[in-house]
Amino acid sequence: MRRADQDAMTELLQRWSAGESGAFDDLMDLAYQRLHRIAHGQARRERAGHTLQATEILHEAVLRLMDLRSLSWSDRGHFFAVSTEMMRRILVDYARRNNRLKRGGSDQQVTLHEAASLTAEGRPLDLIALDEALSLLEQRDPQKGKIVKLRIFGGLGTEEISRCLGISTATVQREWRRAKTWLYAELKGEQILG
Q1: Sign (positive or negative) of CA dihedral 183, 184, 190, 194
Q2: Which site from 27, 81, 159, 164 is most exposed, i.e. has the minimal number of CB atoms within 10 Å?
Q3: Which residue blocks in 45-126 are alpha helix, DSSP H?
Q4: Could you tell me if 80 and 146 are in contact, meaning their C-beta atoms sit under 8 angstroms apart?
Q5: Contacts with 59 (C-beta within 8 Å, 6 or more apart), sequence order
Q6: Phi first, then psi: what are they for 14, rounded to 5°?
């Protein structure tokens, strides 16, 4: 995204928060393609035969975003982080709803591009188990939790995460490695100190 578009997004977020009519529509015009890429990345990582499409994920997220007008938006990074989290919650809720409908059927599996290193031989990762492990990680270390969400669910790279969170790229890389190690152990049921 060009610097001018980044600045325009931040301005639109502030105008929307202030209650300006039409600012949200202008914001969506500017952010829609990026949001769709994020939703597409998440939908692409789903198990074969998954019925929730990228556009459906995105539209549900947009509807939920509309309710967050009064949130104090700091910048576009904040907006994309919240949007990414919203899409992740939509997928987790969908997986839980499907499991309830199956009445004890097997957990929904999802293959996550960046999370392939969390499982041996890139086996599919259980989205509900990942959500629970990620919630625990966030309680223990909020920064690592944010990095994992932005990397896995948001598809952001090291530099984008660095800018979004206001930390160095070296810190992002170090925290990502530590978070992967912790999540791998947690998902395998091993106890890990720290």
Answers
A1: negative
A2: 159
A3: 54-66, 76-101
A4: no
A5: none
A6: -65, -40
